């Protein structure tokens, strides 16, 4: 009969999904396998997840998660179909549902997803979309897999490139901001360890406040007293074109997602 689920690709995202599924009880170690071609990574996965089968070729299975690089997605989808999978969930950036359906052939329901790296700590923001042959039950199955590492929303596929640019690439934008703030703190005279600790807590606290209150503009205004220190800092960021820089970054990432597809 084969495995209930096979994760193809045991890198950061594949490992995060596996860890979330096991920790949440959504699957048992004996019901899931990981396909990983790098021997050192296979050994690490076997140590990290006792009881999970880790192999270098596709075993017989019912469903597959493709956690591979975009150029490898077609071949992996075809291998999943040949192994008996009837459901396919892909997190390969930019690879369209139609491409995966063509590679997998008839009889395989395809779901395309875009999670992000906060999946590593169970805080991913993921959007999914399905093809013409994808049922509501298939989308529900994909949601059940991905909710193990964060939130899941459904959207039409035409929005997925924008999602990739915003939340898929977004963590890198925020980490760059964190790097810049740490360096700025050091330039202002703070020890680097302290600047790093303060900036980290700045992000933790601010994200919690945004999650609770949900209005970024109102929260920004709450911090900004007329003629105060925050207003002075924001004035510089406005002069340097911060908003337009982020807008251009998202547009560039979205265009690259289209190219990858």
Task: Describe what you observe in this structure.
There is one protein chain. The chain is of the alpha/beta class and 261 residues long. 53% of the residues lie in helices and 14% in strands. It has eleven helices and eight strands. The protein has an eight-stranded mixed β-sheet, sandwiched between helices. Strand 4, helix 3 (73-82) and strand 5 form a beta-alpha-beta unit. The longest helix is centred in the C-terminal third of the chain and has 22 residues, at 192-213. The two termini are 33 Å apart.
In summary, what is this structure?
The protein has 261 residues and is α/β, with parallel strands linked by helices. It has eleven helices and eight strands.
């Amino acid at each position: 009969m084969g495995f209930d689920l096979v994760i193809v690709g045991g890198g950061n995202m594949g490992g995060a999904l596996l860890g979330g599924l096991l920790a949440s009880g959504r699957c048992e170690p004996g019901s899931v396998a990981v396909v990983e071609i790098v021997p050192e990574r296979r050994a690490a996965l076997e140590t990290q997840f006792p009881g999970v089968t880790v192999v270098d070729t596709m075993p017989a299975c019912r469903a597959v998660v493709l956690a591979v690089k975009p150029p490898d997605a077609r071949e992996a989808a075809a291998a999943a179909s040949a192994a008996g999978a009837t459901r396919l969930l892909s997190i390969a950036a930019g690879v369209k549902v139609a491409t995966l359906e063509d590679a997998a052939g008839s009889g395989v329901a395809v779901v395309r997803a875009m999670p992000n790296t906060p999946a590593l700590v169970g805080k991913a923001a993921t959007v999914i979309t399905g093809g013409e042959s994808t049922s509501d039950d298939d989308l529900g199955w994909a949601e059940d897999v991905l909710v193990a590492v964060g939130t899941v929303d459904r959207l039409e596929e035409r929005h997925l490139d924008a999602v990739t640019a915003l939340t898929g690439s977004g963590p890198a934008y925020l980490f760059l901001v964190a790097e810049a703030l740490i360096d700025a703190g050091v330039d202002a005279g703070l020890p680097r360890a302290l600047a790093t600790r303060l900036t980290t807590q700045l992000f933790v606290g601010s994200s919690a406040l945004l999650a609770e209150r949900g209005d970024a503009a109102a929260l920004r205004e709450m911090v900004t007293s007329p003629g105060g220190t925050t207003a002075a800092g924001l004035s510089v960021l406005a002069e340097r074109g911060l908003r337009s820089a982020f807008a251009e970054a998202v547009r560039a990432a979205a265009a690259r997602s289209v190219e990858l597809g």
